[in-house]
Amino acid sequence: MTQMSFYFDQTRCTGCYACAVACKDWHDIDAGPVNWIRVETIEEGKFPNVLLAYLIMTCYHCTDPPCVRACPVQAITKRESDGIVFVDQTKCLGNKECQTLCLSVCPWEAPQFGPEDNAKMQKCDLCLERLEQGKQPICVGACPMYAIDTGSLDELKAKYGGAIEAAGFQYSDRFKPAITFKPRRPA
Fold it and tell me: In the chain, how many domains are there?
């Protein structure tokens, strides 16, 4: 099985939010709390030894996703063909009935629920419809700094290296998020 993955170059990201805006626009997500990709600001250290970095927070399509096991109705599945973690909203019980079990087990808060009554879970699906057309996810094309890429985890590791830690990101050996980084290091 191929495992689709993200690559994020933390040294290139300027925190412009183009990826997040493009994602909301492409997927027609209303203004508000739902963001399939978020940009976190990481500030560490004390002057003069400081670090300012940005981190994309999204679904990392884990090799062993906890949300799949937590869903009581199998509304969340991991595709055999490419490892993309996918949500069938027609099966989702909604945030009132299931108590957001999928969100509570995800260390990166990828599952999202809108503000509407009994909202269904939604999250990044790597722009599945675009991938099936041979196109990159919308966040990749929107990034003016070329800080995001997608592809198979093996290809991305071969192309960019296999760093699994970055400022603000804690890798989980248990869930094995499918992401590789070029991390920003303190000055």
Answer: 1
